[in-house]
């Protein structure tokens, strides 16, 4: 993996060589080198390991996605800010299967760094709402759920949001049992 600055230096070098090819009269070579430099510019904005991790995650291969993400040794220097957000987002998804506290940290960091697509941000907030709800922080979960609903403009998460709202309504009911209430001693006194 190349550092983000090295990718730009390589792209600039290839463009300089393409300009040299144009001045020498080799137009085809110059066009080919311009197209080659665009690959490095693309990889500056979209990290290759994050793209490969997304492909593995799409196939439900969590171990493969984790393997690709672990190849990024120092995310702060190797990734642009939005890429760091997606790095944490992917780690949050993978860790959510086993450790809720750690996944909450990853999702919060991903949201603070920023995600470029609204449905990814909605998914992160929906996961945070589920974590907050499981930790009995219902107001925070409700707030995150409404934010996720606003961000889900294409309706990709409507089923999950409806299911979360139904679960929240079910648990919002009273916890006491109807009928004879009180302790066993109070029931004996009455009866």
Automatic annotation (TrEMBL):
Keywords: Membrane, Transmembrane, Transmembrane helix. The keyword Ligase does not apply. The chain crosses the membrane at residues 5-20, 26-45. The lineage of its organism: Bacteria, Pseudomonadati, Bacteroidota, Flavobacteriia, Flavobacteriales. Residues 166-191 are annotated as: Disordered. InterPro entries: TPR-like_helical_dom_sf (IPR011990). This is DUF2892 domain-containing protein.
